[in-house]
Amino acid sequence: MRDTFVDTTTALLADDPRTALVLADISAALFAPAAARHPDRVLNVGIREQLMVGVAGGLALTGLRPIVHTYAPFLVERAYEQLKLDLDHQDASAVLVSVGASYDRPEAGRTHLSPADVSLIDTLHGWTVHVPGHPGEVAPLLRTAVAAETSAYLRLSVLSNDRPLGGDGALQVVRDAGPGAPLVVAVGPTLDAATAALADLPVTVAYTNRPRPFDTAGLRDRAGTDVILVEPYLAGTSSRVVSAALADRPHRLLALGVGREELRRYGSADDHTRWHGLDASGLRRSVLDFVSPALR
Amino acid sequence: MTATTTTATIAEAAAPIDGRQPVAPLLERIRAGREFGTNVYSTIDVLQVLYHRVLRIHPTRVDDPDRDRFLLSKGHAVAGYYAVLAAAEFFPADWLDDQGGPASRLGDHPDRMLVPGVEIGSGSLGHGLGLGVGTALGLRAQGRLEPRVYVLLGDAELDEGSNHEAITYAGTTGLANLTAIVIDNASATHGWPGGPAARFIVDGWTSATVDGNDHDALHTALTGHDGNRPHVVVAVVAPKEA
What we know:
The structure holds 2 protein chains of 2 kinds.
Chain A: H1 2-15, E1 19-23, H2 32-37, E2 42-44, H3 49-61, E3 65-71, H4 72-78, H5 80-89, E4 95-99, H6 117-121, E5 128-130, H7 135-147, E6 152-155, E7 172-175, E8 183-187, H8 191-197, E9 204-208, H9 216-222, E10 226-234, H10 239-245, E11 252-258, H11 269-275, H12 280-291
Parallel strand pairs in A: 1-2, 1-3, 3-4, 4-6, 5-6, 8-9, 8-10, 10-11
Antiparallel strand pairs in A: 7-9
Helix pairs in contact in A: 1-7, 3-5, 8-12
Chain B: H1 3-13, H2 23-31, H3 38-54, E1 69-72, H4 78-87, H5 128-141, E2 149-154, H6 161-172, E3 178-184, H7 197-201, E4 206-211, H8 215-222, E5 231-236
Parallel strand pairs in B: 1-2, 2-3, 3-5, 4-5
Helix pairs in contact in B: 1-2, 1-3, 2-4, 3-4, 3-8, 5-6
């Protein structure tokens, strides 16, 4: 996904003189050709994340469209007040693109894990959040985000599904179990595990790579009584959105995702997927417990 | 220094320079009988020199892309700022009468979305210089080489580490269209041994440290950039507790 991001951003910088890129050393070598061609619009501020976002705010105030990129925890958690004040409070906007996700590099430990990023962005108003599930989804999402006027967060990951799904972020039904069936909404790279886990169960599986704004109309069209969210970041991040969308209906919601507890374990990303119950067997167990405990 | 004698000093210093409204009565209007801290008065000389003699901005062209930018980073220095903006007719003087009220556009910290002529919303310290660096970079990237970006900070505000990210980056990359102004009222809890300017000079900024109440000295300092490097003006005023 990062390679696609670099290629697409390099093309955008060449095509649109409004576009600027702000870096804090991460991925700077990958953007060296773009920096050589556009030295005034590819700005590596060094390991200074507060400045990185402040600079983006200032660029936007002069009419440029900044893309801001680094590791997720440094982009969203370390510079959170700059997102709130240097972008939103100034009525300035930017496109944030992170790498690292919840546990792409678990051997690096807690400092490089960012399961709370989408929750933090979700405290802000009017942001679009894209969580691509495949490298093939990155370019169109990035181009759409840069072409818009509002702020967006693209969360890139080394985890992905086997094939890309296109679409505009509306819920896409990938397996339809008919009216009233439990609805599983899988976000981004969680889709393959969800479909594998639930292949023989009477549940509808839908996909989105755009959790904000969440497709609440699609949700209302598809949801019966039971809704299961599967998100690759903090469990429950989208619960408030689903609850609000279904407030006028009796419903039950199971929100699966990454736990809050610090595991203090290294291992691989697949290990962490399993430990958080987001692998196929973990998801199957959780969904069965929720929709039909007697089937277990 | 009592508020009354300070106000008298300000009234003397605030005579109209170029036919605009005098600032002192507007400051009294916004004060509305309240006690102002000395920090309000410490900033007003710099603001007057900027708005009367330095900044190329005009209330009828607040969106002109080639205007100079003035970013008030120490957002609590707001009363003098509002008075100067009203004197320069960026907004009607009667806005001053209900500052902070439920229908007012004028808070205890300024909001660029509410007040014409205000370039940034500020209040949380340590945000203006980073925004100023980005603004200077954005102007340069678009070939707008005439406008200059001025950011006003306080010596205590320099405690915030975000400033030092901006100071080093701007200095080492030679961001020539940026001026930082530090109002030094010796209010930083642990001080700045060697003076605030030392923090900038070491990274390649030019600097001038002047009497913050001397309008001619301020004017010379505020126009003293060399065109190749960022410039810092330290305006020394009476210590906060005096």
